[in-house]
Each structure stands twice: as structure tokens, then as C-alpha cells.
């Protein structure tokens, strides 16, 4: 018996969502020591609900919501599809780009992703190591590959690599504040 096309699309969207969340939580683009000062984090998003969307056949399709809560300069993001509540800080790196930094514990490895402001929305990029090869990341921006992780020890190199990745690839998701 074949699955209904809508059910298949929902399954694909959930898999994409799980991969996106795993990328930021499991961490593929990392640093052994923090590369961003938590005191310099910015808070461009207000507390509230964000609509999560993924691309499906070239169109943005809603696949969930996020309840965003800020504690000082740190955000918590509770998805309606997961019990995980990742904490992260955003750092403005210019031209509408923000590096998301998730640090599991003080002075431990940090995990990075990139957001790009586009109108009222934020596009989300969560590269994994192997994707750097697909987008032909310039050799000067390559990380140190430590098992399955890409590790950086220089903030500017990390930012450049993330921005090149965003220019040459598609975002994993789009987040838009819900209308009241």
C-alpha cells in the first residue's frame, strides 16, 4: 500500500526538522573554546511564538512553531515537535547575519549555526562538515576536521565560512514571528 503524498511530505518535513535540530544540538560546526563573548550577544527577536517553515518543492511550508523566551541575552527555543529546549545566543556579524552559539556548559565546546534576516523572517543555515565540500568552501576557510565535527579556532574564519556556505546553499528553515 502506498503512502498518501501529503503524508509523505509531512514525513519528509519532520525528517528535515529533526536533522536541523540535530545539527545545532549535536554540533557539527564547533570550536573547542568559545569564539564569541556572551556579553556581546544581541537580542533582535522578541519573546513570543515563531512559525517554523521548511522548503517543499521550492515553497515554504509550515511544519511547526517555536516558543521563544529570552533570559538576559540567552534565548530558549521550545518546539511543539520536540522536548529539547536548546539555549543559544545570537551575535551580529553584519549585513543581516547572526551567528547562533549554543554552549552546553561554561568553557566547553560551542556549536554554531547562521541566521540571515530577510524581511520579518530569519533564514536558518546549519551546515555539516561534508556540506563544506559540496559548496566548495575555499581551502583557506576549511576547519580542522575532528572525527565528524568541523572545528574552528578563529572567529573571523568561522564567520567567513558560514557566510560562504549561506551564499552557496539553501537555508534549512525559515522562522517568522507569529501574527497576534
Structure characteristics:
180 residues; alpha+beta
What does this 3D model show about the protein?
With 180 residues, the chain is of the alpha+beta class. Helices cover 24% and strands 39% of the residues. It has 3 helices and 11 strands; from the N terminus they run αββββββββαββαβ. The chain has an 8-stranded antiparallel β-barrel. The longest helix has 23 residues, at 5-27.
Q: Please summarize the sheet with the most strands.
A: 8 strands, antiparallel, barrel
Number of helices: 3
List unreliable stretches of 5+ residues: 7-27
Mean pLDDT: 84
Q: Helicity, in percent? A: 10-25%
Shape: globular
Total DSSP E strands:
11
Whole-number radius of gyration?
16 Å
Structural class: alpha+beta
| Estimated share of beta-strand residues | 35-45%
Span between N and C termini?
42 Å
Strand order of the largest sheet: 2-3-4-5-6-7-8-11
The helix-strand sequence is: HEEEEEEEEHEEHE
Amino acid at each position: 500500500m502506498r503512502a498518501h503524498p501529503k503524508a509523505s511530505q509531512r514525513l519528509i518535513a519532520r525528517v528535515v526538522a529533526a536533522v536541523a535540530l540535530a545539527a545545532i544540538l549535536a554540533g557539527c560546526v564547533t570550536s573547542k573554546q568559545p569564539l564569541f563573548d556572551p556579553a556581546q550577544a544581541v537580542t533582535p527577536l522578541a519573546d513570543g511564538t515563531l512559525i517554523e517553515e521548511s522548503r517543499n518543492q521550492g515553497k515554504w511550508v509550515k511544519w511547526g512553531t517555536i516558543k521563544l523566551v529570552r533570559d538576559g541575552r540567552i534565548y530558549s527555543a521550545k518546539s511543539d515537535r520536540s522536548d529539547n529546549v536548546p539555549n543559544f545566543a545570537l551575535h551580529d556579524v553584519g549585513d543581516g547575519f547572526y551567528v547562533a552559539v549554543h554552549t552546553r556548559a561554561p568553557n566547553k565546546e560551542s556549536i554554531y549555526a547562521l541566521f540571515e534576516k530577510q524581511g520579518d523572517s530569519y533564514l536558518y543555515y546549519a551546515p555539516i562538515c561534508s556540506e563544506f565540500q559540496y559548496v566548495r568552501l575555499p581551502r583557506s576557510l576549511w576547519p580542522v576536521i575532528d572525527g565528524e565535527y568541523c572545528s574552528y579556532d578563529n572567529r573571523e574564519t568561522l564567520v567567513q565560512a558560514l557566510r560562504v556556505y549561506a551564499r552557496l546553499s539553501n537555508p534549512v528553515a525559515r522562522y517568522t514571528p507569529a501574527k497576534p
